[in-house]
Specification:
Layout (H helix, E strand, L loop, with lengths): L2 H99 L1
Length: 102
């Protein structure tokens, strides 16, 4: 074999081996990228589910608090009416007591 043929065979062998390694490298790189994308996708899905659960929980807590505030407002209104009635009655009793003491 002459030197040129040997060089061509050597270059071809190196190219084939190099391209096979390059192919494996790019395959692994693509698999890793896909795994990373799946991880991010799954992580985002999990976070979204947690946030939705928290949102629902806070929404129900907000509704409970709204009901509690309405109930307390109703009680305060009732107490205000009672206090006004008692103050009026107290004033009337004071005036009756003052008339009787004279």
């Amino acid at each position: 074999m002459d030197k040129e043929t040997l060089t061509t065979i050597l270059v071809t062998a190196i190219t084939v081996l190099g391209s096979a390694r390059a192919w494996r490298y790019y395959e692994k790189r693509a698999e890793k990228k896909e795994k990373d994308e799946d991880f991010v996708r799954n992580d985002c899905r999990d976070r979204i589910l947690k946030l939705e659960a928290l949102l629902e929980e806070s929404s129900s807590e907000k509704d409970e608090m709204r009901q509690l505030i309405l109930s307390l407002t109703e009680k305060v209104s009732a107490l205000t009416v009672k206090v006004e009635f008692l103050q009026r009655e107290n004033s009337e009793l004071h005036s009756l007591l003052n008339k009787n003491s004279l």
